[in-house]
Specification:
286 residues; MetI-like fold; 2 domains; 13 helices; 0% strand
């Protein structure tokens, strides 16, 4: 197939822009990983910027794991992510399925209330007072329950449920199945791509939990990983004897960023196909 000159020019410009955007996304990540693995003497020699290190060292990671409560904060973050995501998926599914049924009484009213929460929020102080009044301060649940349902995810899930064949659900009702059984045995198995997509949204949100932790938690034993990483990033440089053997703050900062990001980066490729399919099937129609 012969391409016109205009098409070749357009493709060249498009590929160039995509390459630049790709580099803009990859280079910062490559820089963080490289600095975390580079001896400090080499970092100083290159003016603080290293993309491809000549020598590798794990001293920053070793020092980080020895001198900070990374393991405890990692356990807290994993607990928040697993338990919180399960609660999110259950509550979102139980809310989205009734809203997807067009014969549900007061359906428009409840949909309007869901959309209203996307436009208006109670604010930081009222939310804090609610969390305090319910006794969630200084507990794991203060980082899970206030964000148990995201309105946007409810609308995505509702749209996906509306696209399921109505004849399939009607045949189940004719056979005597109740709505909860239809949801559990028919709707949920058919909705795995959408559930994985929504679950990934929730899991990333919980893994990056930071604001709720600094608002509602004062017990350092309950700090999630992102709060500990923030403390490491705010450390000041401590002078040491040898630049070749020192483990400076900057390399510890970069290693902390890598440790905080690595689990999500590792998990995402295995869920990518489900993520893409779920976004397409659950897209909101106008």
């Amino acid at each position: 197939m012969v391409r016109m000159p205009e098409e070749r020019v357009f493709n060249g410009i498009a590929y160039t822009l995509l390459a630049l955007v790709g580099l803009a996304a990859v280079l910062p990540l490559l820089y963080v990983v490289s600095v975390s693995l580079t001896p400090y003497g080499e970092v100083l020699k290159n003016g603080g910027y290293v993309i491809i290190p000549k020598h590798l060292t794990l001293s920053a990671y070793s020092k980080l794991l020895e001198t900070s409560n990374i393991f405890r904060s990692l356990q807290v973050t994993v607990l928040i992510t697993v338990v919180g995501t399960l609660i999110n998926l259950v509550l979102t599914t139980l809310m989205a399925y009734p809203l997807s049924r067009k014969n549900m009484p007061w359906r428009s009213f409840f949909l309007g209330m869901v959309v209203l929460t996307m436009l208006f929020g109670g604010g930081i102080i009222p939310t804090y007072l609610v969390v305090k009044a319910t006794g969630l301060i200084d507990s794991i649940w203060s980082m899970i329950l206030p964000n148990a349902i995201w309105s946007f995810n409810v609308l995505i899930m509702k749209s996906f449920f509306e696209n399921l064949p109505e004849e399939l659900l009607e045949s189940a009702r004719i056979d005597g199945a109740k709505e909860f059984r239809i949801l559990r045995q028919i709707v949920v198995p058919l909705s795995k791509p959408s559930l994985i997509t929504i679950g990934l949204f929730y899991a990333v949100g919980h893994w990056n939990q930071f604001f709720a932790a600094i608002m509602y938690v004062t017990d350092r034993r309950l700090y999630p990983l992102q709060v500990v990483v923030r403390e490491i990033l705010m450390m000041t440089q401590q002078p040491l004897e040898s630049a070749e053997n020192m483990v400076p703050t900057v390399t510890m900062q970069m290693s902390a960023v890598v440790l905080a990001s690595l689990p999500i980066i590792v998990v995402y490729p295995f869920l990518q196909k489900h993520f893409t399919k779920g976004m397409l099937l659950g897209s909101i129609k106008g």
